[in-house]
Write a structure and sequence with these properties.
0% strand; 72% helix; single chain; mainly alpha; elongated; disordered C terminus
Length: 448
Amino acid sequence: MARQKFIDDSHWFEVEQINSYAMFMGHLSMAVRGLAFMVVAWSSVVLLGGFVSMLEKDFRSLAGIALLQTTGVFDSFRKERLRNIWHVFQGLVVSTLFNKFEERESRSGSLRTFLASLPFLVAYTIVTAGKVSVQVMVFIIIFLPLATIYMFGLYISTGISLWRLIKRDYGVEDGGHGKTNLKAALDALYFLALLQGVLFSYKTLYGFGEKKMVKTVAIQYKLDDEAHNFLQDYVDDTKVGCDTNPSFATGRNLITYAVDLMESRLPSGYISGLRILDNVIGLEELKGGYNENQNLVRNRMLSDQKQLIKQLIGSASPSQVLHRVIRTLDLRSPYDLEIKEHAARMVFFFFDEIRLEQFPGGIQCITSLLNMRDQEELVLQGLRILQALAADEDNCRVMSNVRGLLSSIKAPIGSELLHCNHDIAHSLLKLVMQLTNAPGENGVGDVP
């Protein structure tokens, strides 16, 4: 989904490379589908309709090409086709196994009755062998040919067209006007099918450089190995969108993609978006080095990306993305420690955008981080968030009006943890001073 933004992202690595790649692949897909339509229309309407009585050797070739074109699978990507074939194969295997298990279960109830019956055992063996044979025949006769057409149908069509163009033995002697038109029509059809195959083969070969492109972008961003998967997901999603509409990539970048994921109702989408944004937020600017100009370009991109994150999420309704991130910190949330760490760093990044009166229960979610005594990093991050929020006068007033807040902050942190971690002790002391001196209706300093 394209979003309105006021930041120039045309120089970003994923926009320059991944988006351009996806748009180019989308135009190739449209060209392949357009040629497929022309080949089917030419073969079915012009040839089979107008010259069917004159066709001899090429009738089967034309029928085969038309069949291969109308399968409607050649506009999908190689990875998706392999995944679909694997799912079909799994379904076939599962249906066979469950059918066999059902037979065993129905037999076990009457095992004692028929165990001594040799004719029954022989009949049961024959029936079972027959079912297995049928499944094997279905796999060999139906599944394998369909899978071959599904994966390599367009290459087969290209091979047939090239073969017929080389032979050109159409079984039509020169002479009549209709026969001359037939030869020209056959040449045109086979040429269109050959051109389609060349474009499709070029698209396939061009796609083999995709992993290298993803690796290059990841190196340019200085991303870790985990972030490679996020980039690959972004590439796949952008390619699928551009496959039907090449302009899908316009206005799209890694940040808008992550924000869209975080707005998804699916937990997996939200987690992926949270990881992407936290990874970008955690990137540090590079200084010095041999390629200072490249570092300047990368640092400018990082600054623009972080600004865009605040622009997109800050402009959203507080009850949506940011509130969801804050609720992730709650001890009762279903997310594990890794996701809570991502969420805590993101909340700290947005501390200047948070107005606690807009997030009911938000302060309780944040203070719940202090209950994780065995996770010192999360405890320290929670104190930093509270300390940053208390620096704002309005937030500090809201916090000072929460009864028992000071006790709930100090109670989970034991004296042992304070002695072992000086950063936690220093952050806790500073936070207590902020809240104690803050004006409030109740005054946290007066509340035990």
